């Protein structure tokens, strides 16, 4: 889809780009079927843009893509990839999506010189929280409820937020009820909550399972 910057020691997304020239390709091919030129899309948890870039290309300059990424370094990389590919119709925010605009979350200070999956980002609600890997959550990021962005008619909303699905979805309820966009949620937990939530806003659901690696 074009030139891409990625963290040199990212052993999942970066490694996939290095070895295959793509990442999450089966997800991309599925999502491309849901949108057309001129549509509006929201990419929540955009990481470095491996899905944002092809979706923006598919939608074209007559459409609009809004992308959120909470981690500052991944956000800067995302901005670089959009610039490299001339995608000026993408608006990006370094924000966490949540159920209340203005609330604070914290992301960990990653050592980018060490190999790890930098896309597996989690946020904490407490400053200096330490997780099982010893990461200290000391970098603040402001949250925004997606309903407050005022996006009138999104065609597709993709969510990949590392366990924060409940608070993100709770900040999206009005938009879903009004616009009924396609909703694509990447999850490894909270599945029961997600299904009950989708039922409560009048959605049908199906599982799209793809292999982790090419």
Account of the 3D structure:
The protein is an alpha/beta fold and 214 residues long. Helices cover 28% and strands 21% of the residues. The protein is built from 7 helices and 9 strands, in the order ααβαβαββββββααβα. The protein has helices at 13-20, 25-32, 52-59, 72-84, 165-170, 173-179, 191-200; strands at residues 40-44, 64-68, 90-93, 96-98, 104-108, 129-130, 136-145, 156-160, 182-186. The strands form 2 sheets. The protein has a 5-stranded parallel beta sheet with strand order 3-2-1-8-9, covered by helices on one side. Strands 4, 5, 6 and 7 form a 4-stranded mixed beta sheet that branches. Strand 6 (129-130) and strand 7 form a beta hairpin. The longest helix has 13 residues, at 72-84. The chain is globular and about 45 Å long. It starts with 12 loop residues before the first helix and ends in a 14-residue tail after the last helix. The mean pLDDT is 94.
Strand count, sense and barrel status of the largest sheet are: 5 strands, parallel
Count of individual helical segments: 7
Span between termini: 17 Å
Q: Which percent range describes the beta-strand content?
A: 15-25%
Overall geometry: globular
Order of helices and strands: HHEHEHEEEEEEHHEH
Count of β-strands: 9
Segments where pLDDT lies below 50 for 5+ residues? none
Question: What helical percentage do the residues reach?
Answer: 25-40%
